[in-house]
């Protein structure tokens, strides 16, 4: 069955695999200073955001990603007041963060203002948190931004694209070092670290480099299945010199409206299958 591009959007991954969804309407297309931005209305995944031909956000499954990026970090930090999201121009991570009244300020550092503007228009629910008065938006390179802040953030979340183009800077060891310095002593950083199945080298290198920066026992991977991302199985690197997702977690402040993250799913997410353990020790 060949997929007619006038009806289907297909993300071809590495030339040998693909993920496709039938769309009913193309809502937006632009080429910003940084990337091609497309937004489709689809039958199966709701509205989807595509950057440079890659699925970034879908109304169907991005809640899994946004909840896993945000809530383990907050659940393992006593009283977070200042947070920063690097990348994340769709606003989904910020929308999860603003659910916590204890958080006093949130910076979104997204390099591409056109992503923010198009997501505010076409993903009103996912981007809703961007209008919270505690949120300030900075449109510049996250690596340059974070390097200017020391001992300032209780939570740093990196919601980046793949390590290509402007996203490459967000997988550099120098960036990881800047994150470590930007955290308060009890702070936590969580970064999306790609697919252990389809991007095992990127995943393995990211966890290795993070461990070289934060310490061998200070980086814990977490896993979740996100169907619209290549390979489905996705990972997050939980980094902290003082907090550990195995022991430091408390669910007292967990918002009541979550659809994926829970105490049980927290436990499930930090259990590594043998093939991932093998990847990280080989
Ligand atoms: N959840 C998605 C994923 O895991 O692939 C990421 C979504 S979010 C839209 C990714 C954002 O990172 C994009 O809007 C992109 O413009 C932004 N970005 C890429 N490189 C960046 C950089 N160096 N500094 C700040 N933002 C960056």
Structure description:
- With 282 residues, the chain is of the alpha/beta class.
- The chain contains 8 helices and 12 strands.
- The model has no long low-confidence stretch (mean pLDDT 97).
Structural class: alpha/beta
Distance between the termini: 40 Å
Model regions low in confidence, pLDDT < 50 over at least 5 residues: none
Q: How many strand segments?
A: 12
Q: In which range does the helix fraction lie?
A: 25-40%
Strand order of the largest sheet: 8-7-6-9-10-12-11
Reported for the largest beta sheet, the result is: 7 strands, mixed
Radius of gyration using CA atoms only: 18 Å
Tally of DSSP helical segments? 8
> What small-molecule ligands were found?
S-adenosylmethionine
The average pLDDT is 97
Query: How do the SSEs run, as a string of H and E?
Result: EEEEEHEHEHEHEHEHEEHH
Throw out a few tags for this protein.
12 strands; 282 residues; 8 helices; 5-stranded antiparallel β-sheet; binds S-adenosylmethionine; alpha/beta
Strand-helix topology:
Elements: E1 8-13, E2 17-31, E3 36-42, E4 47-51, E5 54-58, H1 62-75, E6 82-87, H2 92-97, E7 105-109, H3 113-122, E8 135-138, H4 142-146, E9 153-159, H5 173-182, E10 183-192, H6 200-214, E11 219-225, E12 233-239, H7 263-269, H8 274-281
Helix pairs in contact: 5-6
This protein binds S-adenosylmethionine.
Residues 34, 51, 56, 65, 86-90, 109-112, 115, 141-143, 159-161, 166-167, 169-170, 192 line the site of S-adenosylmethionine.
């Amino acid at each position: 069955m060949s997929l007619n591009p006038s009806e289907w959007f297909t993300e071809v991954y590495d030339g040998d695999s693909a993920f496709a969804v039938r769309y009913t309407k193309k809502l937006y297309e632009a080429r910003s200073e940084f990337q091609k931005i497309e937004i489709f209305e689809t039958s199966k995944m709701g509205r989807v955001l595509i950057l440079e031909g890659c699925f970034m956000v879908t109304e169907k499954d991005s809640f899994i990603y946004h909840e896993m990026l945000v809530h383990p970090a907050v659940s393992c930090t006593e009283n977070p007041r200042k947070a920063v999201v690097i990348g994340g121009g769709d606003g989904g991570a910020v929308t999860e963060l603003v659910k916590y009244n204890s958080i006093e300020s949130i910076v979104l550092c997204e390099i591409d203002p056109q992503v923010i503007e198009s997501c505010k228009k076409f993903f009103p629910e996912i981007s809703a948190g961007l209008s919270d008065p505690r949120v300030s938006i900075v449109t510049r390179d996250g690596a340059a931004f974070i390097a200017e802040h020391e001992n300032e953030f209780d939570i740093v979340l990196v919601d980046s694209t793949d390590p290509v183009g402007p996203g490459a800077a967000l997988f550099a060891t120098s960036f990881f070092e800047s994150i470590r310095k930007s955290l308060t002593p009890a702070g936590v950083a969580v970064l999306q670290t790609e697919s252990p199945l389809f991007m095992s080298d990127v995943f393995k290198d990211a966890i290795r480099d993070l461990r070289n920066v934060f310490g061998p026992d200070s980086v814990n991977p977490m896993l979740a299945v996100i169907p619209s991302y290549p390979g489905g199985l996705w990972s997050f690197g939980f980094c902290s010199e003082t907090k550990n997702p195995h022991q430091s977690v408390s669910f007292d402040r967990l918002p009541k409206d979550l659809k994926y993250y829970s105490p049980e799913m927290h436990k499930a997410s930090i259990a590594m299958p043998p093939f991932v353990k093998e990847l990280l020790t080989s």
